[in-house]
Design brief:
The chain has about 90 residues and is of the alpha+beta class. The chain has one domain. The protein has 3 helices and 5 strands; from the N terminus they run E-E-H-E-E-H-H-E. The strands form 2 sheets. It has a 3-stranded antiparallel sheet. Strand 3 and strand 4 form a beta hairpin.
Amino acid sequence: MDFVTLLGRPVTRDQMLAALKDFDSAYRDTNDYDRWLDKITYKYALRHAGRLYPCKYILSVASGLDVTDFGGGQQTNSKFQRLGFEVIDKP
């Protein structure tokens, strides 16, 4: 599949990769974003190129939607998995 939809918006793998690149530029240490690795409210992580990322935030950047506009968990994880990304339980 070349894209997934989120609230009617198509999101491509390339958009996801661009969001990851933007995140890497903004946060040298991925935990600098909201100290997300330390919080129990974040249950999953996107693993890509040896780094962990907050799934919902990355999908928000890729889609242009605010994180409050859509649910996390399986709704978010399935988008990444359909595009060939690896989602894991957050360590």
